[in-house]
TrEMBL record:
This is GDSL esterase/lipase. Keywords: Hydrolase, Lipid degradation, Lipid metabolism, Signal. Belongs to the 'GDSL' lipolytic enzyme family. SUPFAM superfamilies: SGNH hydrolase (SSF52266). GO terms for biological process: lipid catabolic process. InterPro entries: GDSL, SGNH_hydro_sf, SGNH_plant_lipase-like. One of its GO terms (molecular function) is hydrolase activity, acting on ester bonds.
């Protein structure tokens, strides 16, 4: 969910860097078609148990838990070493060492990872865009966050609406599509950073959840058949916040957010008498991983609350370098044995574990 500070020379360098990055991303995407997360090497299921039909298109809205490269390289750690070291072996705009939720969901559906919104014009075959688009940006919330330039969820949905208006997607395309909506905490991180009070928090949580419900309803109303909505993970268990005693996974703020969201989604489903909205239960997946130190048969995390990549000093985070290029972070030897990658994001193996719990009919 986190991105680092904007640099003042951002605008000057943006063009140059984007050009470099475009080339890289296209390369990456090409590789991916024939590569290890390619559907062609899999046996996609005829019908996913999760969604009840065979989705052909995936749209993603969200923050760094779902971003696959939208956030510009100039201020996102996701484009710096050691992000991406496990997959594809170099930074790829993902806030982890490898794949994120979007990649794992696409794989489950037997689809390619949808193209990041920012590259949509650069991919020639329309087929690629037909496969879906990822509108998620690291740092995004439902409201404006401390990462001011990042498009919030409403703006991401507007991008989608414009494409629907332009008939990039037919009604039939939309009717065989699913969306992942994953906004899990930047509104709260921003509130804390602005020294928000604990008395004001329940009201903020209510506003955030109300807005999430409006957002997902809008996605549904634009024609997407099913929307998978992320709950908040246990916010107090991020490595930066844990104490020597561990963490409180049963905190009232996370519980309020999640119970209001579940209740709201249930109401939306009742209104239409269909099951358009499904719960992406990050909360219980995280708690299960903490309790079992992994997922039996999938992963082992001896210290599930510790991050693989951490700043050396207060104020430093994973990926930071000093004036002379010296690393200001420490990196674990084996990211596969860590659930958390950095202070807020989970590893490739962490996401694999979460998906193995939430989509048990899948094979990872
Ligand atoms: C996959 O690789 C083969 C040969 O290496 C190539 O002919 C084909 O076009 C590639 N597929 C895509 C979709 O790029
Ligand atoms: C989202 O961002 C846009 C553009 O900055 C802003 O106009 C809008 O009010 C924001 N939406 C919400 C719900 O805060
Ligand atoms: C979408 O597809 C389902 C299943 O084929 C069908 O029942 C439904 O009427 C379709 N909805 C629209 C809006 O086309
Ligand atoms: C929040 O509080 C800290 C410590 O009291 C202070 O240094 C900081 O400037 C405050 N931030 C804002 C945005 O008010
Ligand atoms: C969480 O806390 C609430 C109130 O403190 C309690 O009623 C509930 O049983 C707890 N849930 C779990 C799973 O421990």
């Amino acid at each position: 969910m986190n991105i680092t500070k904007t640099t003042p020379w951002f605008l000057l360098l943006l063009c140059l860097i984007l050009l470099t990055v475009y080339k890289f991303q296209i390369g990456l995407d090409y590789k991916r078609v024939n590569g290890s997360i390619s559907p062609s090497s899999e046996q996609p299921q005829e019908e996913s148990i999760m969604f009840g039909f065979k989705p052909k298109t995936l749209f993603v809205f969200g923050d760094s838990y779902a971003d696959t490269g939208n956030t510009p390289a100039t201020f996102a750690a996701s484009w710096r070493f050691p992000y991406g070291i496990t997959f594809p072996g170099k930074p790829a705009g993902r806030f982890t060492d490898g794949r994120v939720s979007t990649d794992y969901l696409a794989k489950y559906l037997g689809l390619r990872t949808p193209i990041a919104y920012k590259w949509r014009r650069l991919v020639l075959p329309r087929k690629v865009v037909k496969n879906g688009i990822n509108f998620a940006y690291g740092g995004a919330g439902v409201f404006e966050t401390m990462f001011k330039v990042v498009p919030n969820a409403s703006v991401q949905i507007n991008f989608f609406e414009q494409l629907v208006r332009k008939k990039v997607y037919s009604q039939a395309d939309l009717n065989s599509s699913v969306a992942l909506f994953s906004i899990v905490g930047n509104d709260y991180i921003t509130y804390d950073r602005l020294n928000g009070t604990s008395q004001g928090r329940p009201a903020l949580i209510r506003r955030v959840v109300r807005h999430i419900l409006l957002d997902v309803k809008k996605i549904r109303d634009l024609g997407v058949r099913k929307v998978w909505v992320a709950l908040s993970p246990p916010q107090k268990c991020f490595p930066s916040l844990i104490t020597p005693k561990g963490c409180d996974s049963n905190d009232t703020s996370t519980n309020l957010h999640n119970s209001l969201l579940r209740e709201g989604l249930r109401k939306l489903n009742d209104e239409r008498n269909d099951k358009s909205f499904l719960v992406f239960d990050l909360y219980n997946a995280f708690v299960s991983v903490f309790k079992n130190k992994g997922v039996p048969g999938v992963s082992k995390f001896p210290e599930p609350l510790k991050a693989c990549c951490v700043g050396l000093k207060r104020g430093n985070t994973c990926g930071d370098v000093g004036k002379n290029g010296e690393k200001l972070f420490s990196l674990c030897k084996d990211p596969k044995s860590f659930f958390f990658w950095d202070n807020v994001h989970i590893t490739d193996q962490g996401w694999r574990s979460v998906f193995s719990l939430l989509l048990p009919d899948s094979q990872y």
